[in-house]
Amino acid sequence: MHHRETSRREAHRTPAAVLAAVGGPAHGLDAVAWAAAEASARHAPLHLLHVIPSDPFGPDSVGPGDAGAYDAARLFVDKAAEHARRVAPHLSIATRITTGDPARTIALEADNADLVVLGREAICRQSHRWSRSLTVQVTARSPRPVAVVGFAGPPGNGRAAGRVIAVAPSCLAPNAAWAVLGTAFNAAHQRGVGITVLVDAPGTTRRSGTNVDDLLAAHLHAFADIDMQRQRLTGPRGSLLTQASQAAALVVLPLPETRVARWRSRSAIRRLLETVTATVTFVHAQGGPLLAHRSSPVGGTR
């Protein structure tokens, strides 16, 4: 009953925006298209943000009088908005160009969003260390869930092809577990696909005494139309996740709840992004009621 009452209350909440960080022409528009489709599915506005680096000691920084940089940024942001409108013609879109430290600025803007969307075109290219670092820094700093859009390509034929993958080990705190599973089940429901949950051994109990089976049973009760499969977390988790997520529609991963712990996890975040080619959404329990999506009887975001 409590979950259904929560659902009714959330149904009347005005969804916050989906924030897409727009890079330059070298970064492509895959992330913008993904963000537009996600915002449309959530009935939320889309905000496109481009940050021109202004670190006076940075090699790519510009000053207030560099009109050429602003003109180039405006052209690309307008192109990104046009691309988003082709994906979702009735979507409300706002654009903003500003200067500052890109990672810090995006993280601050994220406080007014439900989801931050980043591209990953530059993550694995050794010649773009700045862009790779930016993605990791924003993921570690953001107070909201962060989606890093995967490489576009033909559908795969693996076990996870087209499915949503959720990673829910027993070491997660209860709020983090709800956030991960709520996000994953909402995403699977939105896309009309199945979900594969990577868990520990059946019956494993979390630190709070909450059983993994109980958490999954609650979500299956709320999302009875979703085909759910379980897969054991055994052996090296990095290689297992890489294999399990091939051609997945989305991979939902937990992050530590505190910003300090997330910042210390930057190396782990980078390794995940370098090995998992599917779109990844990182979630954590910290972030307040915005993590409870309006359509989920059990909380979590899409």
TrEMBL record:
Residues 18-149 form the UspA domain. It holds the Pfam family Usp. SUPFAM superfamilies: Adenine nucleotide alpha hydrolases-like (SSF52402). PROSITE patterns: TAT (PS51318). This is Nucleotide-binding universal stress UspA family protein. It comes from Kribbella shirazensis.
